[in-house]
């Protein structure tokens, strides 16, 4: 059992039981499965400990106060948070989504006669698949993304001041330039945020600050556990995405941005990192040959992720992460002042 930290000598720190738990999910196409397999490992071990303690199992939406993601990470955030899926349900839905979306390419030539980048995949298939996933979980995809209902988990996948349906929010976070058509919500046009924030930890931090400490911006004392999960090191081939090398400079920049964001964030949150309150998980080897759209590589993604998690260093980090999460008593925030 992990010892509780103290605010003052002899006093348990209430952040250990009621502090914020935040989850940030990178974008990465089909490699989003790696994100889900890592999260499944964490949740399975958390629920095993809960069963041993005669406690009911929990879903991510019952543990995390805020789930944020970009691109396919945003899509996963919506399924886990807004649709309140457990991880196994999300994996099944995600596998079906990427199969339906990526099995048929719409355009072989990336640039049209006017010089504009054309969408390679059919956005209508993506829309229909999202609507189907929502319906199978008892939700109409045309319902407002922010419907005013109080939920334990808040989801960051769209701008909160833009009224959007669940389907529109999912389409907007998935609308990668050159892959899907940009999404119009009212007068505004949205494209995938991965072009500027493939690792959305800064955005998750900013949104959490806006929600829970808008006056001070002093988020760190409120955070019990901050987990950031990547989609694996993409490698050169996956970045170039086979024949579409004209995207390579942009996607190389995305990969570099992801690593740089991680480095800077850990430096700023060094105290939480050292106190085992911040965790970054990202498969380092084995996914270099998996392109963003290679939906048939599920087995390879699962095997590479399992090998990563089975490494002794990651075993210890998963253990520490679970020990942190299992002290959480409710998805809420108290006044720690």
TrEMBL record:
The active site is at 71 (nucleophile), 192 (proton acceptor). GO terms for cellular component: membrane. Residues 23-205 form the PNPLA domain. A motif (GXGXXG) lies at residues 27-32. GO terms for biological process: arachidonate metabolic process; glycerolipid metabolic process; lipid catabolic process. Keywords: Hydrolase, Lipid degradation, Lipid metabolism. A motif (GXSXG) lies at residues 69-73. SUPFAM superfamilies: FabD/lysophospholipase-like. One of its GO terms (molecular function) is calcium-independent phospholipase A2 activity. InterPro entries: Acyl_Trfase/lysoPLipase, PNPLA_dom. It comes from the Eukaryota. The keyword Transferase does not apply. A motif (DGA/G) lies at residues 192-194. Signal peptide: none annotated. It holds the Pfam family Patatin. This is PNPLA domain-containing protein. It comes from Aspergillus udagawae.
């Amino acid at each position: 059992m992990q010892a509780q930290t103290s605010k003052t000598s002899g006093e348990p720190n209430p952040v250990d039981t009621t502090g914020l738990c935040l989850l940030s999910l990178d974008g990465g196409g089909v490699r989003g499965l790696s994100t889900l397999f890592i999260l499944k490992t964490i949740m399975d071990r958390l629920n095993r400990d809960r069963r041993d303690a005669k406690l009911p199992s929990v879903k991510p939406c019952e543990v995390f106060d805020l789930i944020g993601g970009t691109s396919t990470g945003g899509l996963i955030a919506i399924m886990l948070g807004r649709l309140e899926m457990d991880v196994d349900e999300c994996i099944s839905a995600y596998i079906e989504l990427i199969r339906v979306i990526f099995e048929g390419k719409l355009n072989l030539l990336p640039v049209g006669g006017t010089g504009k980048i054309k969408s390679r995949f059919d956005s209508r298939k993506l829309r229909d698949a999202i609507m189907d996933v929502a319906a199978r979980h008892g939700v109409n995809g045309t319902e407002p993304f922010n419907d005013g209902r109080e939920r334990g988990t808040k989801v960051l996948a769209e701008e909160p001041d833009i009224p959007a349906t669940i389907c529109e929010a999912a389409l907007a976070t998935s609308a990668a330039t050159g892959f899907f058509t940009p999404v119009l919500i009212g007068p505004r046009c949205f494209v995938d945020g991965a072009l500027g924030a493939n690792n959305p930890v800064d955005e998750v931090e900013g949104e959490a600050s806006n929600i829970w400490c808008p006056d001070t911006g002093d988020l760190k004392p409120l955070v019990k556990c901050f987990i950031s999960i990547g989609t694996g090191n993409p490698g050169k081939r996956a970045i170039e995405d086979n024949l579409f090398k004209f995207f390579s400079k942009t996607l190389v920049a995305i990969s570099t941005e992801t690593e740089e964001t991680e480095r800077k964030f850990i430096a700023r949150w060094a105290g939480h990192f050292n106190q085992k309150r911040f965790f970054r998980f990202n498969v380092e080897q084995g996914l270099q040959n998996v392109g963003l759209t290679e939906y048939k590589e599920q087995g390879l993604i699962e095997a590479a992720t399992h090998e990563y998690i089975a490494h002794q260093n990651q075993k210890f980090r998963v253990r520490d992460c679970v020990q942190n999460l299992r002290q959480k008593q409710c998805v809420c925030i108290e006044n720690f002042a």
